[in-house]
Structures are given as C-alpha cells and as structure tokens.
C-alpha cells in the first residue's frame, strides 16, 4: 500500500517535471509566437475615440485622472466619478479634460461600494450622452496591514475594489452590448504576485482578475475586457488614508529601492493606447510580466525573492 502511495506521488511529481521540461524546450517557439503577436499588434488599427463615451470611476486623482486626460485628448465624451470628500478634485479634473479636447464632461459624486449609487451614475451617464462605450473600473484603495489587525476594518477594501467594479459592470453591460464596448478593470500585479502583508488588497485584486477572466467568455465577442495588472506606479494610493501612521510614505520610498517603478503619466498613456488597440491584458512596467512567469514556473524562487524583499522593507516587525 505504501509502495502504491509512493509510486503515485512519485509519478505525479515526475509528470509535472517532464511537463515543465517540455515547456522549457518549446519555449523558444512560444517566445517567438509572443514576439510576433506583439509586433503585429503594433500595426492593429486604433479605435477612433472621437465621439465615444467613456465612464471612469475614481477619476479625481492618480491614474484615473490621467486616463481621463488621455481619453480627452482623443476627443471622447467623459463621465468622471469619485467619492465626495472635502479635498475631492473632481470638478477641476472635468474642467481640465474639457480644455484638453473632450467635447463634454460630466462629473458625478458617488461611492462605488454602494450598489444604488453605481446604478445612479451609469444611468446618469447614459441619460446625458445616450450611449456608453468604455467603462473604466478604476476606483481602488490599498491598505497594508496584517491579519493580526481588527479584520472587519478591511471590509471597505473588498467593497470598493471588488464590489465597486462588479456593481458598475453589472449596470453598464446592457449599454455596452449596444455599442460593442469595452470594460477596463484595474487589478494589480499584486493579484498575481501576492507580496506579504498586502493580503486584503492583493486578495481583492486577485478576485477581480478571476471574476473578469471568466466574464470575458460570457460577454465576448460583443464586449471586450482589458485587465490591468500594474506594478508600482508612483501615484498617491501608496500614501492613501488606509495606510496610516506614515508607513505609506516611507514604504513608497522603500518600494522604489526594491521593485521596478514607473511614472504615472507614461503609464496612463500606455494603458489608453493599449485599450484602443484592443489589448486583453496590460502590464506596466513590462518587467512585471517576467515576475509573473517566474512565479508560475519557479514558485520557490518567487518566495525566496519575497522573503528578501520583506527583509529589505523591514515590514515584518510592525503593522
Ligand atoms: N499606484 C500603484 O502602484 C498601483 C499598482 C497597481 C494597481 N493599482 C490600482 O490602480 C487604482 C487607482 O490607484 P491610484 O494610485 O491612482 O489611487 P488614488 O490616486 O488614490 O485614486 C483612487 C481613486 O479612487 C477614488 N475612490 C476611492 N474610494 C472610492 C469610492 N468608495 N467610490 C468612488 N471612488 C473612490 C478616489 O477618489 P477620492 O479621492 O475623491 O475619494 C480616487 O479618485 C487602484 O484600483 C489600484 O489598486 C495601483
Ligand atoms: C473619427 O471619427 C470622427 C467622427 O466620428 C471623424 O470625424 C474622424 O475623421 C475620425 N478620425 C479618424 C482618424 O478616422
Ligand atoms: C488602479 O488602482 C490603483 C490603486 O489600487 C491606482 O494607483 C491606479 O491609479 C488605478 N488606475 C489604474 C488605471 O491603474
Ligand atoms: C503591487 C501592490 O500594490 N501590491 C500590494 C500587495 O500587498 C503588498 C504588501 O505589502 C503591498 O505593498 C502592495 O500595495
């Protein structure tokens, strides 16, 4: 009996390693396949955004704001959404987008974690513009705490990052069906790489990836979905309210030393360009794609890397 058990276990492991070896052997061909696809995609025609309607949640700052400007430069009508806060800059964002070339911009204050408010801003956008072409589910928060904290404090992470995107998508789908539109969802490389202590944030992003990867099959080919898995981009989320006690600010500085980071503006430009070219997933900085590959092919190397990073960031002692 033990022999069979050992045998099974051994064969299973062997099958895995043989498969891995085969994969490595054919990887030069796979590599060229990827390369050729990437090169040909450069020549694919861009969607003409002039006269199209784009709804962006979380557009009062960060990448959401910059994406609004990129769409504005392409002549799209815009509906920009953010939660009403004393310092919310949504009106200024709307004004700037008009200056940059958007023919008409509306702004709506709403909390994406509330289902009726999501219905309200989708309805209001369609009432005003009579159509919807792109839905950008961008609003997100990123706290950094360990499981030892009061766990209920983190319900908002799931409510905003995951449910906020799902609610908006639910109400937008009937309108996107009519225009053969697109959904752009803001996940994160953290949803794939799960660095330590990002548990709640990273889990909300992993849930997004999982949900939208299967939704893809449900709504295609009418609606296409672009999943963003960004690495560290220098915006203000890392210093946002949930990462209290100054850990956020220090972390942002430390992160720059150990992870590849990218400026927000070229990143927003790359995203909108990718979406208009019909990309199904976008990763910026590109180097993170290599990290994803390492994680799937060599999980031991991945955890070794994370341990080293954890030590460098000195996150282990505090929370
Ligand atoms: N920066 C990075 O390194 C990075 C990396 C990977 C993924 N991402 C993802 O990118 C997205 C945006 O990041 P960011 O750095 O640009 O963050 P940000 O500057 O803090 O922007 C977040 C936006 O979401 C809005 N928002 C927050 N809670 C909301 C709510 N309940 N309802 C409606 N709007 C709400 C904020 O509006 P108000 O301020 O007006 O509330 C703000 O406009 C997130 O989903 C994040 O997970 C970022
Ligand atoms: C894009 O569409 C607008 C109107 O829908 C049209 O006037 C313009 O010429 C188009 N631009 C290109 C580059 O095709
Ligand atoms: C996505 O969410 C993150 C915060 O989690 C934010 O930094 C970024 O601006 C958002 N937008 C895009 C397009 O990534
Ligand atoms: C890439 C990213 O934003 N990941 C998050 C996941 O959790 C880690 C843990 O510290 C955070 O640093 C990140 O914000």
From TrEMBL:
Any one of the GO CC terms: cytosol
Single GO molecular function: oxidoreductase activity
Subcellular location: Membrane
Domain of life, per lineage: Eukaryota
Location (main, coarse): membrane
PROSITE patterns in alphabetical order: ADH_SHORT (PS00061)
InterPro entries: NAD(P)-bd_dom_sf (IPR036291), Sc_DH/Rdtase_CS (IPR020904), SDR_fam (IPR002347)
A family per Pfam: adh_short
Membrane topology recorded in Swiss-Prot or TrEMBL: Single-pass type II membrane protein
TM ranges: 12-33
Family: Belongs to the short-chain dehydrogenases/reductases (SDR) family.
Record's protein name: Glucose/ribitol dehydrogenase
Organism (species): Tagetes erecta
